[in-house]
Amino acid sequence: MVMEEEILIKAQDKENKNEILLYLLKNKGNYVSGEELSEKLKVTRTAIWKHINVFKKLGYEIDSVPRLGYCLKNSPDLFIPEEIWKDDNIKFLGSKIYYFDTIGSTNEKAKILALEGAPHGTLVLSEKQTKGKGRLGRKWESPDKQGIWLSIILRPSLTPEEAPKITLITAVACAKAIREQGVNCAIKWPNDILYKEKKLAGILTEISAEMDKINHVVVGIGINVNTKSFPEELEDIATSLYLIKNEYIERVPLLLTFLKGFELYYSELEKGNFSEVLKEWKNLNCTLGRKVRIIGKNFEVEGEACDIDEFGALLIKKDDGTFERILSGDVSLR
Ligand code: ADP
């Protein structure tokens, strides 16, 4: 058996965060004295110095000036857990974070961790996926340090038939975070974020459920951030923020915006306010009102995409005037 390549950088609970790094991150651009750090965090000056050297090895640019102390000038834009924990507005996402240099697939890993009891809100992030997944076993191209390759473990109190709502709220959070970068993307039902018809991000929701109860949900998000070129077969269908804006985009702030949006819409969903999120989805989508062809497991439907219902299913008005309700399938926009 070939061992799956898997290089873990860190697996950490929020309670065990590195307070020194967190302090520097929260005071980025300002000097904090060794004395201040040592008093506030109850650590020795030698311990601080040792930690600072580790952070520097990770790529943090830290100035140390006698009498002034330490100043974090630049971060390496990696998904080091403290980069997420520095944002106090993120509440339940990242209670536990698994951060990999390389992994087969974050969703596959998250499913194993979920079965082993990983808590609600656990995040699995990797700089690169060697077997990134799309729907139906398709491949998701996930080059090293060029995108956000993330899976979230959720334990929602929803019924299994409500699970597609999670894909919809993820799409809204993802589209909104990308739009904050000035990129006018749109949601294509059910799981893609497009810019000018090219795929900028994709979502893969996988659930483990019994008849009337969800055990856990793993929602995978892949956002092409700084990808400069795609393999030939994807050139015409994929794009990245870098290719759209012609500039390097920092991944960490984009991730934080996405996580905050996700928490907001997820809490609305849990409170039973899904209709509010659905309104947002409708404002951001590029599927409704269009002629579409949908290919599903054992069917093919053509018609106009009229609406989505409160469960996230797509309503198609066929040419003969009858309606069909579609739960999943491959959509091509005509
Ligand atoms: P869809 O939702 O479009 O049916 P999937 O969710 O199955 O697509 O995603 C997998 C497909 O997306 C692949 O078959 C490939 O065509 C395309 N793809 C793979 N990697 C990327 C990427 N990084 N960016 C955009 N598209 C990709």
Give a structural overview.
- There is one protein chain.
- Helix 6 (164-179) packs antiparallel against helix 8.
- Strands 1-5-6-7-11-10-9-8 form an eight-stranded mixed β-sheet, with helices on both faces.
- 29% of the residues lie in helices and 29% in strands.
- The mean pLDDT is 95.
- A hairpin with a 2-residue loop joins strand 9 (192-195) and strand 10.
- The protein is α+β, with helices and mostly antiparallel strands.
- Bound molecules: adenosine-5'-diphosphate.
- Residues 134-136, 138-141, 191-192, 199, 202, 222, 224, 234, 237-238, 330 line the site of adenosine-5'-diphosphate.
- Adenosine-5'-diphosphate (ADP) binds at residues 134-136, 138-141, 191-192, 199, 202, 222, 224, 234, 237-238, 330.
Give a list of the ligands.
Answer: adenosine-5'-diphosphate
Largest beta sheet: strand ordering: 1-5-6-7-11-10-9-8
Oligomer: single chain
Uncertain stretches of 5 or more adjacent residues: none
Keywords, please?
about 325 residues; alpha+beta; 8-stranded mixed beta sheet; 5-stranded antiparallel beta sheet; about 30% helix; binds adenosine-5'-diphosphate
Give the SSE layout.
Blueprint: E1 7-13, H1 19-26, E2 31-32, H2 34-41, H3 45-58, E3 61-65, E4 69-74, H4 81-85, E5 96-102, H5 106-115, E6 123-126, E7 147-154, H6 164-179, E8 186-188, E9 192-195, E10 198-209, E11 214-224, H7 241-245, H8 251-270, H9 274-284, E12 291-295, E13 300-308, E14 314-318, E15 323-326, E16 330-333
Parallel strand pairs: 5-6
Antiparallel strand pairs: 1-5, 2-4, 3-4, 6-7, 7-11, 8-9, 9-10, 10-11, 12-13, 12-16, 13-14, 14-15
The protein binds adenosine-5'-diphosphate.
